[in-house]
Specification:
heterodimer, A: alpha/beta, TIM Barrel, 8-stranded parallel beta barrel, 5-stranded mixed sheet, 20 helices, B: about 140 residues, alpha+beta, Ribulose 1,5 Bisphosphate Carboxylase/Oxygenase, 4-stranded antiparallel sheet, two-stranded antiparallel ribbon, about 30% strand, RuBisCO_ssu (chain B), Ribulose bisphosphate carboxylase small subunit (chain B), RuBisCO_ssu_dom (chain B), ribulose-bisphosphate carboxylase activity (chain B)
Chain lengths: ~500, ~140
């Protein structure tokens, strides 16, 4: 008889494969001595076992259900190199300060995955296990993607460097705004907002996630009026301008039709929503590279699974998948605005977007060294409740390679949209200038803005209107590890 | 019309000291600074004329200010910009770009519309100055 209290893999073939039920650990999904290979995919899950379920067995179950296992022993395993195909839980650690939660590290052989397919990767890693009864909750916290696998993906269609070269914008964050109200404007009125904002000094305007083709504004109307606005603004300023035309639609055929029309009209950028799905995103990324168009991704829907700490998929994992999938822009939080995001966690996201290589940084929620194998960099987009008065904080937290999107902070300006755009642009340029000149913008930011406002009335008006607006709420998703003094020193 | 290209075109015109401070920031980051000029400010005119090579081994931004003033002597009626190149792996492109000289008057751009099938319009932007031959634009 098998001893059900043991977590030891059963080595003897006859015992291991006799019909019936074994613990996942005994089936070989728990290998505490396993050293992951450089070519393994590694997933880190936060597991919350049901009361009375052993953490090691729970981790082994996750490994089993996300790779080869089913609930009972099957003899057909023996027709395969099953030791290789079994995912291996190799480490289970209690989560600091969170009773009942454990970090489970699981390694997957590269041959378990089809190259270049986020759908295939995710069908394994998050396909079945999240509803598994022995777990109260499960969260995919991070992944290590081996270079060999990274190289099977296209990566961002354009990338930060080439996007900047195409737009002829260097040395400062890009500026954008989402057209508001997000629903209800006619094409003609919508284009007016685009024209005013771009002429006033923004680089980009943006459709919102749910602007597709509704009764009040069909997509062709929007595209035609927006491109009139883009070209007028370009002539008025001598700059390259863009507007993210949202091509999200019900079928791939419709999305290709809309994207092609946008390209034919001369748009430098199109936009899609995360809700179209991973395969559709990869298809649009390929289209974008084939057609020299920048691809913006709005992360519509992500908070349904990224926000809660105990269950779902961390946004840092979504960010990694999207860099593989090949989008150029992705929203990543503002720290200071109205939407979720503490500074340390958000820094982790930004590093995943923009760095060649991410070293492990537990204080930013990055659990693994990740080499991006020269995949293009993704431009983070900061959007949601930000305004000119926060420019020193935004530049400090988010750096230079970012699109700062001031929607209400542009369109809500008391003297009009163009004035709002100018206020943001002047605040931005003044802050970058001051930083480069060696000033302590974190502490002197308000002085720098006030000085800049002396020669820019729209900025003065913006600072007066929004001076007291901030969004100080506790974050629901913060790192589990605080830096120890000798690490941070 | 004021040409808004470059990272500081919404600020008051830069003084020589401003140029020095910004160029020194580039140098301190390990970027090579160079000076370029043009009389064709079209937003997609990528290749402005080079005023010498990028100053790869220059540690002192005073030399940049000197080159800008030399360039002004010959091309003061045109646009002059300072750019900084970063040769590090994964970037190998421009890090900074700002305008340091403008023509006395900036006539701007004409938007040419060509009506096409349906309601499509083909747009072209044309610098008024660039209608004149090279060398004969701006004063």
């Amino acid at each position: 008889m098998n001893d059900m209290s043991s977590n030891q893999t059963i080595a003897d073939g006859k015992t291991r494969y006799s019909a019936g039920v074994l613990k996942y650990a005994q089936m070989g999904y728990w290998e505490p001595d396993y050293t992951p290979k450089d070519t393994d995919v590694i997933a880190l899950f936060r597991i919350t076992p049901q009361d009375g379920v052993d953490a090691v067995e729970a981790a082994a179950a996750v490994a089993g259900e996300s790779s080869t296992a089913t609930w009972t022993v099957v003899w057909t395993d023996r027709l395969t190199a099953c030791d290789k195909y079994r995912a291996k839980a190799y480490c289970v650690d209690p989560v600091p300060n969170s009773a009942g939660e454990y970090f489970a590290y699981i390694a997957y052989d590269l041959d378990l995955f089809e190259g270049g397919s986020i759908a295939n990767l995710t069908a394994s890693i998050i396909g079945n296990v999240f509803g598994f009864k022995p777990l109260k909750a499960l969260r995919l916290e991070d992944m290590r993607l081996p270079v060999a696998y990274v190289k099977t993906f296209q990566g961002p269609a354009t990338g930060i460097v080439v996007e900047r070269e195409r737009l002829n914008v260097h040395g400062r964050p890009l500026l954008g705004a989402t057209v508001k109200p997000k629903l209800g404007l006619s094409g003609r009125n919508y284009g007016r907002v685009v024209y005013e904002a771009l002429k006033g000094g923004l680089d980009f305007t943006k459709d919102d996630e749910n602007i597709n083709s509704q009764p009040f504004m069909h997509w062709r109307d929007r595209f035609l009026y927006c491109m009139e606005a883009v070209n007028r603004a370009s002539a008025a300023t001598g700059e390259v301008k863009g507007t993210y035309l949202n091509v999200t639609a019900g079928t791939m055929e419709q999305m290709y039709e809309r994207a092609s029309f946008a390209k034919d009209l001369g748009s430098v950028i199109v936009m899609i929503d995360l809700v179209i799905g991973y395969t559709a995103i990869q298809s649009m990324a390929k289209w974008a590279r084939d057609n020299d168009v920048i691809l913006h991704l709005h992360r519509a829907g992500h908070s349904t699974y990224t926000r809660q700490r105990s269950h779902g998929v961390s946004f840092r994992v979504i960010a990694k998948w999207m860099r593989l999938a090949g989008v150029d822009h992705l929203h990543a939080g503002t720290v200071v605005g109205k939407l979720e995001g503490d500074p340390a966690t958000t820094k982790g996201y930004y590093d995943i977007f923009r760095e060649e290589r991410n070293p492990q940084a537990l204080e930013n929620g990055i659990f693994f060294d990740q080499d991006w194998a020269s995949l293009n960099k993704m431009m983070p987009v900061a959007s949601g409740g930000i305004h000119a008065g926060q420019m020193h904080q935004l530049l400090t937290y988010l750096g230079e390679d970012v699109v700062l999107q001031f929607g209400g902070g542009t369109i809500g300006h008391p003297h009009g949209i163009a004035a709002g755009a100018t206020a943001n642009r002047v605040a931005l340029e003044a802050m970058v200038f001051a930083r480069n000149a060696g000033r302590d913008i974190w502490n002197e930011g308000e002085d720098i803005l006030r000085d800049a406002a002396r020669t820019c009335t729209p900025l003065k008006q913006a600072l007066d209107v929004w001076k007291d607006v901030s969004f100080n709420y506790a974050s629901t998703d913060a790192p589990d590890f605080a830096p120890t003094p000798d690490v941070s020193a | 019309m004021k040409l808004r290209q470059g990272q500081f075109s919404f600020l008051p015109d830069l003084s020589d000291d401003d140029i020095r401070v910004q160029a020194q920031y580039a140098i301190d980051n390990g970027w090579a600074v160079s000076v370029e000029y043009t009389d064709d400010p079209h937003p997609r005119n990528t290749y402005w004329e080079m005023w010498g090579h990028p100053m790869f081994d220059n540690p002192d931004a005073a030399a940049v200010v000197f080159e800008v003033s030399e360039c002004r002597k010959e091309h003061g009626g045109k646009y002059i910009r300072v750019i900084a190149f970063d040769a590090s792996p994964g970037w190998e492109s421009i890090r900074m770009s700002f305008i340091v000289n403008r023509p006395a008057t900036e006539p701007g751009f004409r938007l040419v519309r060509q009506e096409d099938a349906g309601r499509v319009v083909r747009y072209t932007i044309e610098s008024y100055a660039a209608r004149e031959p090279e060398g004969a634009r701006y004063a």
